[in-house]
Amino acid sequence: MLLCHESEVEEGQSKGFDLSDELQVFVVRKDDQLYVYKNECPHLGVNLEWQEDQFLDMDGALIQCSTHGALFEIETGHCLFGPCEGDKLTPMGFEVTDGNIQLTKNSP
Questions:
Q1: Angle at 88 between CA 76 and CA 72, to 5 degrees
Q2: By residue range, what is the domain housing residue 88?
């Protein structure tokens, strides 16, 4: 399932996608690496962003849940602070083909 062209996610930025009623995901670029996660906080199952495409904290260093302020490592999805500390975000399998980011069939 095609998400976007990799150029649409700039360094230190994030972008969300509503793929269906049951599946929302987001992409983050950090240190020129892409990460794709299911848009769902492990604490309450709510979407993470506080505004469209705003998944990162003020410094752009961590993913932040808008509901209770939980903070997650971009590279691993592990929760470092908040009510779900020790849990992690659900990573999504993806590949970049001809510059296009697409989910792979092995995505949860």
A1: 65
A2: 2-103
Residue 81 lies in a domain: yes
Amino acid 93 reads G
Query: Cα–chain-centroid distance for residue 51?
Result: 14
Nearest C-alpha neighbor of 66 from the set 92, 38, 44:
44
- Tokens for 84, please give them: 């779900």
The string of DSSP codes covering the chain is: -EEEEGGGS-TT-EEEEE-SSS-EEEEEEETTEEEEEES--TTT-----SBTTB-B-TTSSEEE-TTT--EEETTT-BEEESTTTT-B--B--EEEETTEEEE-TT--
pLDDT tens per residue across span 15-44: 999 999 889 999 999 999 999 999 999 998
Does residue 83 lie in a domain region?
A: yes
Amino acid identity, position 79:
C
Q: Residue 69: inside a domain, yes or no? A: yes
